[in-house]
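Below sits my pick:
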Amino acid sequence: MNTKVKSKAGGKEAEAKVPTDLRTTLAATPKVLALWQSLTPIARRDWISWIDSAKQAETRTRRIEQTASKLISGKRRPCCYALVPMNLYKALGASPKAKAQWKTLTPTERRDFIGWIDVAKESEAHKIRIAKVCALLSAGKRHF
């Protein structure tokens, strides 16, 4: 997934890498590109994460097209993007220690966990990663 922060420079997070297919769509319309560039780095990362989380090529294509139209209509974030996937939300709810630790994480730490989970495209691998995140959080860990 392209959303993981690679480094911090001067206290600022590195920009998320814009996938080629999204970059092509943004560059095709100067107004859309200007709107994209006006977003905060975190907002851009949310859009990229929403697009990268698509499991089928058709969904990814549709989300890229929606990104352009939503930006033009004034949206600054993907409207349908759950910051915490439902299966992770339920797993955290079943583990009070993990849920308590989750609440103390920074937005970047949360996105790193979610991004790592979402990279696993197979259902079983996804479940295993959710269980591992809950175990790490229950043990007081903030990183994997």
